[in-house]
Amino acid sequence: MSEAMMDFNDSPEQANYRMQCRSWLAEALTDFDGRRPHFPDFDVPEVMAAARAWQSRKAAAGYAAISSPRGYGGGGGSRIEQEIFDQEERASPAPFTDVFDIGLGMALPTMAAFATPEQKSALLPPLIAGRDIWCQLFSEPSCGSDLAAVRTRAIRDGTDWILDGQKIWTSYAQHADYGLILTRSNPDVPKHKGLTCFFIDMRAPGVEVRPIVQMAGIAEYNEVFFTGVRVPDAQRLGEVDGGWSVALSTLMHERTLGGAGKVRGLTIADIIEGARKLQIGDVPALADGAVRERIADWWIDMEGIRLNYYRALTLLTRGETPGPEFSAGKLMSGRQVQEMAAFMLDLSGPSAIDIGDDSDSAGLAMEWLMAARRRLAGGADEIMKNILAERVLGLPVEPRLDKDIPFRDLF
Ligand SMILES: Cc1cc2nc3c(=O)[nH]c(=O)nc-3n(C[C@H](O)[C@H](O)[C@H](O)COP(=O)(O)OP(=O)(O)OC[C@H]3O[C@@H](n4cnc5c(N)ncnc54)[C@H](O)[C@@H]3O)c2cc1C
């Protein structure tokens, strides 16, 4: 069997593309020593510099936003090609570029759908090339799952809008140049009908970003405060009070980001490797029947997640909109990574407590500490279950008693 035929899920064209990606990655990564932290901390200048350099290199070769149009700095390819490249990149020691994920995965498609041609020409190429970082300013202290309840006010003032309020959980806001923001423009109508979306300059007067340090010692997300922030109406995305449909489009792309098996993290291969090294008594843990049974269960789940993810991708390539497929994948993969990390920590024993070095057990401890966030980011587990209950199982929808009441009267 030739090397190009090894990935039996690929068509011959896809197998060729995969080999092309693999050889480009091997060539482009000869400069990198392959040493990476367990998790990227983009507050560390070297980590950020490596991310920007790698992103720019991918952009120059057409691999930075493969399925986006060439005119804006994308690669002009298909979603499947993007997926193939992502798989190969994840298997390589490429520098982490998570700090660009929101820009590429959410801001780019939202801007492509709602911004003017001039805005796209000005803003998308630097986003794709890793010069500009974008963030998503949706969640607030009093709304996350119930996103339509945002309170950050946008009040019209001539050709501008004035923004006041607070966002929270805003990933990478401390590094961001631009943000997509969902605001309350009209409190006199039901909550979904009085929202307006904008893109904003994160360095505009009145924007204050306060990083939140997580239990693993990294500050990935932030509180962001808006005090009299002036935003030109030209930066509005979609209709006045029509922000909910813009937000839904962004959220659909968010689901494809963390949807299923796409996120980096512990893999079955890592677990097998770890169980081979760790001992139970004086035999490798991998020889233990109970350990093997757990690994087999996870492998089966992972296959389900993977195939389900491909089903969703197939819908996307046909121009259809996947929904519950991504919810199922997100629900299963978030839970699984957390379970696998906890299991491996148990096997590791006391050495797992030390997270301060580059050892395997330190990596596991970080995996475990960071795993919980997957079960909230991009939609909490319970929300995924609600979607599956309603859209797959056909169970009665959740009562939504507030949907016809003016937002102002809800409190
Ligand atoms: C790592 C990370 C990064 C994030 N990055 C961003 C970002 O960049 N930008 C951004 O805007 N947001 C971001 N978020 C926020 C994320 O979208 C929210 O945390 C998520 O939507 C949940 O909202 P919440 O935290 O307000 O929890 P809540 O909505 O208050 O939920 C609290 C609990 O109640 C449960 N619950 C809520 N409603 C229901 C219901 N109807 N039925 C059953 N159970 C329910 C939830 O499942 C959860 O367990 C991020 C979150 C994390 C963890």
Automatic annotation (TrEMBL):
Keywords: FAD, Flavoprotein, Oxidoreductase. It holds the Pfam family Acyl-CoA_dh_N. Residues 52-130 form the Acyl-CoA dehydrogenase/oxidase N-terminal domain. Residues 242-393 form the Acyl-CoA dehydrogenase/oxidase C-terminal domain. SUPFAM superfamilies: Acyl-CoA dehydrogenase C-terminal domain-like, Acyl-CoA dehydrogenase NM domain-like. Its cofactor is FAD. Transmembrane segments: none annotated. Residues 135-226 form the Acyl-CoA oxidase/dehydrogenase middle domain. Coiled coil: none annotated. One of its GO terms (molecular function) is flavin adenine dinucleotide binding. GO terms for cellular component: plasma membrane. Belongs to the acyl-CoA dehydrogenase family. This is Alkylation response protein AidB-like acyl-CoA dehydrogenase. The lineage of its organism: Bacteria, Pseudomonadati, Pseudomonadota, Alphaproteobacteria, Sphingomonadales.
